[in-house]
Amino acid sequence: MDQYSRVRTTLTTGTLFLMVISACSVSRNSYAVQSPNNKVDSSQKVINVAPATMVKDAIRLQGLIMSVKGKKDGWYQYQFQVNKTLKYGATFASIEPQQEEVVVLNTSKKLDSKPGDEIIVDVTTPRERHVGKLMIFKVSE
Q1: Which of 96, 97, 102, 110 has its CB 3.0 to 4.6 Å from that of 82, i.e. a possible disulfide?
Q2: CB-neighbour burial class of residue 22 (10 A; exposed 0-12, middle 13-18, buried 19+)
Q3: Residue 111 contacts by C-beta under 8 Å, 6 or more apart in sequence?
Q4: Domain map of the chain by residue range?
Q5: Given this model, what pLDDT does residue 136 score?
Q6: With 80 as the cut, is the pLDDT of residue 27 above it?
């Protein structure tokens, strides 16, 4: 084995080692979000209505259902106060609701949650902010 082959082998081995270490640290951090399979966390009283897998264009929010607005154009509408952003989809590039902002949550099916319940939900948001409250749409399973 000549000098250049040893250098190339050392660099390749070192690069692979760094890639494995990076992948381990990334995968450890990606599981920091609460498991979507837990529907109710009894210690926190937060109801998880997010699907098991994250949609790439969505954002995962935790917030409070303030009131039920009713049904409009086939959508169930809720006043929803955003408490925090938990996770972003891989290609999320639209409007992120601000913390404590009250938005209109649209769902295709009626939620089992009632006003006063804190929920975790995956939603899509518009690309531009319009006049009035921000309209967000729950991602269906």
Answers
A1: 97
A2: exposed
A3: 49, 65, 76, 78, 119
A4: 1-32, 40-138
A5: 94
A6: no
Residues in the chain: 141
* pLDDT surpasses 60 at 38: no
- State the amino acid at position 56 in one-letter form: K
d(CA 47, CA 54): 17
- CATH of span 40-138: 2.40.50.120
Quote the CA–CA distance of 51 and 36 in Å, as a whole number: 7
Asked whether 81 and 117 are in contact (CB, 8 A), the reply is no
In angstroms, the CA 125 to CA 113 distance is 21
Q: Is 105:123 a contact under the CB 8 Å cutoff?
A: yes
